[in-house]
Amino acid sequence: MKYVKILSIMLFLIIGATAVSAHGVDVTADTMVVANDTNGVFVKDIADSNNINISVYKFTSEDEVAHILEHSINNTNKRMLFVAYQDTANEFLKEHKDLSNRIIVLDDVNNDTVLKGIQDIMNAPTGDIAQENSFGLPLIIGIIIGALIGIGCGIFIMKRKN
Predict the structure, then answer these.
(1) pLDDT one-digit tens code per residue, 30-41
(2) In a domain, 25, yes or no
(3) Measured between alpha carbons, how far is 77 from 67 in angstroms, rounded to an integer?
(4) Which domain holds residue 115?
């Protein structure tokens, strides 16, 4: 019974120590335009007429925009052009000045500024892939956790047989 308690405590500590990210998975393109219902088609038409392949997403609330902005913190390849929800983007940039090279906000939305903004965001620098977590780190962590649990279970089974 003593070993069951120890094993339970070990398992609880291991599970509690692992980081959980409940933020969600980003399914949007890395280079995108944030628009609303009034200017989404307008921006896409400008991009298509200039043979620029960029995704235009229509958002319906500031909460959605704030959520997608949070994804840009960890995704160093995320580049965004804002032709709508400029206030939300500007507030975000005040808190995260280091992202200003990957997030462009257009306060004056017209043909020329949208085309220049699209060209600028397509040429904006992205992060270095080598800086991001690779497959190896989670694999090593999983192996260590699995070994600890396996050793704990093995000790418990061996003690129970004796």
Answers:
(1) 899 999 999 999
(2) no
(3) 16
(4) 31-128
Query: By the 8 A CB rule, do 96 and 119 touch?
Result: no
| Structural contact between residues 35 and 84, judged by C-beta atoms closer than 8 angstroms | yes
Total of domains in the chain: 1
Residue 37's Cβ-count burial label (10 Å; 0-12, 13-18, 19+) is exposed
Question: How is residue 159 written in tokens?
Answer: 């003690």
**Residue 136, Cα to own-chain centre: how many angstroms?**
19
Q: What's this model's pTM, rounded to 2 decimal places?
A: 0.65
Task: Give the pLDDT confidence of 116-130 residue by residue, as tens digits.
Answer: 999 999 988 876 544
Sign of CA dihedral 89, 93, 29, 22: negative
Closest by Cα among 59, 66, 56, 64 to 29: 56
Q: Supply 96's token pair.
A: 């995260």
CATH number for the domain that contains residue 96: 3.40.50
At residue 77, φ and ψ (nearest 5 deg) are -95, -5
